[in-house]
Write a structure and sequence with these properties.
The chain is α+β, with helices and mostly antiparallel strands and about 300 residues long. The chain has helices spanning about 25-40, 75-90, 165-175, 195-215, 280-290, and strands at about 10-20, 45-50, 90-100, 105-110, 120-125, 130, 135, 150, 155-160, 180-185, 190, 220-225, 225-230, 240, 245-250, 255, 270-280.
């Protein structure tokens, strides 16, 4: 099929920050801030941070003391990144451990607009509970639904990590008007798996998200952490976060992709900024030739509201 080009391109330069996280919270925040400033100085208008970037990924074990890491929204982290967003003139997508009330916590993404205001929040909807990813112990499922966040750059469809495996979430964000799908992520290898299984998992992770771009005709930005993080309980070998952050266009084409994290914990890790320019008019051109939304048979989809059809 022939594809016409938009005569007026609204281009956004995006940056994904893929980096390691340590035990020192202040150091993590300082490093993240430095990378945001560098991205802004290189022309980035939208900066996406990885999931729970303030600390190590603490869900490898269940420990009630860990709830001390949670903070309110607005709170110290949102105050800090609001100042950074305003100073640098960028839109920032953060990912925080939210303390909503005593005994009520969420895995929450917060978007700071370029004027330093909180543009909106998204609470992670799908909460995993797997070895090394005991998130149900810490997080209550989100209750804000799949609603895009309006910013000076457009409508951002924020989803978080485990959400990225569910086509329903991507579709509902798109149906609500999202112009980009953005996934702050913390996913990695079980060091007990062999190299072939590790590669299959990583490939599946990329494939499912690129399919969301194709099926919905909008770009997808996936920002994953990198590096080895030990299990604080000492029960397992820990997690080797696989990096591989990427930006895909509305036909699933890779516009930028980060180097994978080394498979071995002792290997040196690299903190990077991944850049890509997105033509925000291109989604319309793609949807004109691949009109999936037009041809949906919503009159026959009622069974999707069932958990399983027996």
């Amino acid at each position: 099929m022939a594809q016409t080009q938009s005569p007026h391109s609204a281009v956004i330069k995006c940056a994904l920050l893929q980096h390691t996280c340590g035990d020192d919270l202040a150091h993590n925040t300082a490093m993240t801030t430095s990378l945001i400033e560098k991205a802004a100085s290189n022309g980035a208008q939208l900066v996406v941070l990885q999931e729970l970037h303030r600390s190590r990924y603490f869900c490898q074990s269940e420990n009630t003391d860990t709830f001390d890491l949670a903070e309110p929204i607005p709170g110290p982290s949102t105050d800090h990144y609001a100042q950074v967003a305003k100073r640098c003139g960028v839109v920032i997508v953060t990912s925080l451990f939210e303390k909503r009330a005593v005994g009520l916590y969420h895995n929450t993404a917060v978007v700071l607009d370029s004027d330093g205001t909180i543009a909106g929040t998204y609470r992670k909807m799908h909460i995993p509970d797997d070895p090394g990813f005991y998130e149900k112990f810490y997080f209550t499922p989100g209750d804000l639904g799949f609603e895009p966040i309006h910013t000076s750059l457009g409508k951002l469809g924020i989803l978080v990590c485990w959400d990225q495996w569910f086509p329903e979430a991507a579709r509902l964000m798109t149906m609500a008007g999202a112009e980009l799908l953005i996934y702050p992520t913390a996913i990695g290898w079980d060091l007990g798996d062999d190299a072939a299984e590790q590669q299959r998992q990583c490939d599946a992770w990329e494939t499912i998200q690129r399919s969301h771009a194709i099926a919905n005709g909008i770009p997808v930005l996936a920002c994953n952490r990198t590096g080895y993080e030990p299990d604080p309980s000492g029960t397992t070998q820990g997690i080797q976060f696989w990096g591989n952050s990427f930006i895909a266009g509305p036909q699933g084409e890779l516009l930028a992709k980060a180097e994978p994290s080394p498979h071995l914990p002792e290997s040196p890790q690299q903190n990077i900024i991944l850049y890509a320019e997105l033509d925000m008019n291109r989604s319309e051109q793609v949807r004109r030739i691949w009109p999936y939304l037009r041809d949906r048979r919503i009159d026959h989809y009622s069974d999707l509201t069932q958990l399983y059809r027996n």
